[in-house]
Amino acid sequence: MGLVVLALAVAGCDNTQLVAPTKSTISVSASTRLLPSGGSTEVTAIVVEEAGTPVTNGTTVRFSTSLGRVDPVEAQTRNGVATTTFFAMNTSGVARITAISGAASAGSANANVVEITIGAAAVNTVTLRASPGSVGPLGGAVELIATVVGENGQALSGLLVTFNTDQGTLATTTATTDSNGQARTTLTTTQKATVSATAGTKTSSNVTVDLRSGPGVSISCTPASGSGNCSAIQASVTNNTATVLFTVKKASGSSTLRTSTIDFGDGGSEVLGNLGSDATITHTYKGPSGSTNVSYNAIVRATDLNGESASAATVVILTPKATITPINVNITATEGTKTQLSARWTFKATVTGGGETGSGNATISSYKWDFDDGSTVTTSGDTTSHIYTRGSASDAQTERRTVKVTVTAQDGRTASAQEQIIVQYNAAAP
User: Fold this and answer.
1) Domain map of the chain by residue range?
2) Average pLDDT of the chain?
3) Cross-sheet strand order for the sheet of 241-250
4) Is 105 helix (H, G, I), strand (E, B) or coil?
5) Alpha carbon 300 to its chain's center
6) How does residue 428 score in pLDDT terms, banded at 50, 70 and 90?
7) HSE (CB half, 13 Å, CA atoms) of 188?
8) Is 336 helix (H, G, I), strand (E, B) or coil?
9) Contact 161, 174 (CB under 8 A)
10) What is the pLDDT of residues 194-229, one digit of tens each?
């Protein structure tokens, strides 16, 4: 019977856990103090005796937590160190992990407790930015990037971020932070929008996504001569063309232009630059080949520094050139003074028809006269005089002459007329 009791006593001693002796101290630390929901980290307990030496290897340390779980719950020391793993589980808040062993003291600072903040509770700051910071004048899309950090500036991954906007639409209203603590979504808007992001109990400052000013240009057209607009310009009768003046302006409130170009609509174009000042451009169009009007669509296109584009257009319509009537010329001959050897005549050319606009009289720039006696003269006026001289070998008192005039119009057209006259000299004295 005594042997049995002894055996049981020995067995009981073998199952007794080794714990820290009196006046030992215990302290706890964790690899990180911030965890996302579902995260984990190693927790370390250090147990030393009063003399500052590690407790005996195999000393049992028991771990407990207010949130999540620890595994293993009990661990044995090696060189005074025991470790366990804390699992945050699907929780959010502050977990208090406690380590105890025998009579070990935590001291006045509760060194045997470590706090780990989990999930949304770990959020200290949420910042938000938009890339780019604005959309074009007609709207567009930007990426919203929320960055979530804890108290020590550590990026928090695996946290749910909620995005909000007062205008436009979000590709997704929630997103989870990545390893850099960033969550992203896309905002599409045609109006100025104010956006924010929330993680846990923290909300970012509002960020404004504005509409950028776009490029703006205008174009107007007037005939190169005369007044009015370019909705019905008659082609010239001389070369079937019409010249116009374009005025191109940068619109008030326009963004800064990088370049602008005018396309005349007839295959030609001209680069105008950034339109730092109004541009005036002269261009000549070809008129219609038949009786139907011909139209040209003149377009100015501008691009600003952001790559945004704008355009403005005006229509130039050329009507057929006028039908020109023939130039008619008549010569009026008036006999003047005469002697036995000479006779003076005055000639006037009258021009009718052939007006450059299809009506009225042509504008004559010169008159070339041939007096049929070997002499000619060119005048700018329509009247000239000529003295005929009887040859010394001739005793004829009359001569028949055919006077011819050729007129040249301002546009280069010519017309001619001729008139026969009888040149009579005074009879010789008997």
Assistant:
1) 22-121, 125-211, 217-319, 328-424
2) 91
3) 217-223, 241-250, 279-286
4) strand
5) 15
6) low
7) 4
8) strand
9) yes
10) 999 999 899 999 999 999 989 999 999 999 987 889
Geometric angle at alpha carbon 121, from 120 and 127, rounded to 5°: 60
What is the DSSP-derived secondary structure letter of residue 78? B
Tokens of 16: 């007794």
Instruction: Tell which CATH classification among 3.40.605.10, 3.40.50.720, 2.60.40.10, 1.25.40.10 matches the domain 328-424.
Output: 2.60.40.10
Cis before 137 (ω within 30): no
DSSP 320: P
Phi and psi for 122 in degrees, rounded to 5? -85, -10
d(CA 111, CA 88): 21
**Fold identical between 22-121 and 328-424?**
yes
Q: Are 164 and 197 in contact (CB under 8 A)?
A: yes
Question: Is 0.90 topped by the overall pTM?
Answer: no
**CATH superfamily placement of domain 22-121:** Immunoglobulins (2.60.40.10)
- In the three-class reduction of DSSP (H, G, I as helix; E, B as strand; rest coil), residue 179 is classed as coil
Cα gap 259→238, rounded to integer Å: 37
Residues listed for the chain: 430
